[in-house]
Fold this sequence. Notes:
Blueprint: E1 3-4, H1 9-12, E2 17-20, H2 34-45, E3 49-54, H3 60-69, E4 79-82, H4 83-92, E5 98-102, E6 117-118, E7 126-129, H5 144-152, E8 156-159, E9 165-168, E10 171-174, H6 176-185, E11 190-192, H7 198-211, E12 219-223, H8 226-235, E13 239-243, H9 260-270, E14 276-278
Parallel strand pairs: 1-14, 2-3, 2-12, 3-4, 5-6, 5-7, 7-8, 8-11, 12-13, 13-14
Antiparallel strand pairs: 9-10
Amino acid sequence: MADFIERFEPLARDYDVLLCDVWGVVHNGLSAFPAACEALMRFRAAGGTTILITNAPRSGEAVSRILDRLKVSREAYDAITSSGDVTRGIVKARLRESVFHLGPQRDLSIFADLEVRFAPPETADYVVCSGLFDDTIETPDSYRDLLAALSARSLFMVCANPDIVVERGDSLVYCAGALADAYAARGGEVLYCGKPHPPIYELALATAAKLRDGTRQRVLAIGDSVRTDLKGAAALGLDCVFVTSGIHAEEYGSREAPDLAALNAMFAAAGVMPRAVMCELVW
């Protein structure tokens, strides 16, 4: 059974490094969560290291600029590790091949400064999926014919964001993970670059080790998704604090008063259990 806690500070004393999710914990896509930002700043002020770990399908530098616009202070984190960073590494290794980019124009920073040859789905050698072309009006069902065409050519797909949905204000919008899962269900080969898969964690932990000069690393993950944050941390043997005000909020009562029994039932069904549960990250 997971314990519900109201403040993070007593638990924070047990850890040296935080791997903190971004969207749903630090901001909601439209504005920052001031209490969460303050908690991260206080953790750093006490000697801790905070790595923001995000399934955003763009480089860490691009994510940092977005956080600036959302008023997330750079004092809240030491570094950012993104699914886009992992994706860029894969693209660099395949520069001889042409790529079909399935996703919006805003995600083109994945390919910045890389000599990439883009191609349409009819001739491309592989696919990088970073999301829907227009997530304000489209759903995965809008891509049934395109995914069928890609599957018919047996194209390898790189999923730059394994999230299925994400919060945008008070709404949920579909992400690349929803398309990648639909493609995999057709028998397509998919490589997922972000959480809950190991590459993004390995990169984040390596970054933390450099920042801390190899000193002790007691690591805690923080996130709002069972599928990505909680399962990803559990797979690496890391403790996790689960934040309830994110994408699962309506599944267990409300954002303000979640049902702990319903939460524990959800964790049990997923086969994972967090160290603790919070409504929101508060120091």
